[in-house]
């Protein structure tokens, strides 16, 4: 009984906003099986129109990869979000990325996470497509993706999660 009482906050519904401006691509169409087959979680992918990556939600930074290509955030309801900037970008070893957060930082929706030089990433990596995944799907009661084609970072809700 007490477990249910304390779990209520964990089950509240939250909105995840677009972390970048750009064109929304169904996750299943991302040309990388790890994302397309949802091996790391469900979510959306966005082909960015600029290099500003911002927090999609209020939360805590739980991962800031040394290669600067990905950031993990834990939202107030326990949802764990991974923003993976580009495809096969870990091999760039930080080239083209400027990270603005570190593990343990608190962020608000719209706070700068990473600046990306899309020209560098577009030339040296497989793609600039940026998946945003919910990595703890076993803890998620409900996930709804909005049917949007174009999004503005911090303005458009792309996923609601409960």
From TrEMBL:
<keyword id="KW-0762">Sugar transport</keyword>
<keyword id="KW-0418">Kinase</keyword>
<keyword id="KW-0598">Phosphotransferase system</keyword>
<feature type="domain" description="PTS EIIA type-1">
    <location>
        <begin position="32"/>
        <end position="136"/>
    </location>
</feature>
<dbReference type="GO" id="GO:0016301">
    <property type="term" value="F:kinase activity"/>
</dbReference>
<dbReference type="InterPro" id="IPR011055">
    <property type="entry name" value="Dup_hybrid_motif"/>
</dbReference>
<dbReference type="Pfam" id="PF00358">
    <property type="entry name" value="PTS_EIIA_1"/>
</dbReference>
<dbReference type="GO" id="GO:0009401">
    <property type="term" value="P:phosphoenolpyruvate-dependent sugar phosphotransferase system"/>
</dbReference>
<protein>
    <submittedName>
        <fullName>Phosphotransferase enzyme IIA component YpqE</fullName>
    </submittedName>
</protein>
<keyword id="KW-0808">Transferase</keyword>
<dbReference type="GO" id="GO:0005737">
    <property type="term" value="C:cytoplasm"/>
</dbReference>
<dbReference type="InterPro" id="IPR050890">
    <property type="entry name" value="PTS_EIIA_component"/>
</dbReference>
<keyword id="KW-0813">Transport</keyword>
<dbReference type="InterPro" id="IPR001127">
    <property type="entry name" value="PTS_EIIA_1_perm"/>
</dbReference>
């Amino acid at each position: 009984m007490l477990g249910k009482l304390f779990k209520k906050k964990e089950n509240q519904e939250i909105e995840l906003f677009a972390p970048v401006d750009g064109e929304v691509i169904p996750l299943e169409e991302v040309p990388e099986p790890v994302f397309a087959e949802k091996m790391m979680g469900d979510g959306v992918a966005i082909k960015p129109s600029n290099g500003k990556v911002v927090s999609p939600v209020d939360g805590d930074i739980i991962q800031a990869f040394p290669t600067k290509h990905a950031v993990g955030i834990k939202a107030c309801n326990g949802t764990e979000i991974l923003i993976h900037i580009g495809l096969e970008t870990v091999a760039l070893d930080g080239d083209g990325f400027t990270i603005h957060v570190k593990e343990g930082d608190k962020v608000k929706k719209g706070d700068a996470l990473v600046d990306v030089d899309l020209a560098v990433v577009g030339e040296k990596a497989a793609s600039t497509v940026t998946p945003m995944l919910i990595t703890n799907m076993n803890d998620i009661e409900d996930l709804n993706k909005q049917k949007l084609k174009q999004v503005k970072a911090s303005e458009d809700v792309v996923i609601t999660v409960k």
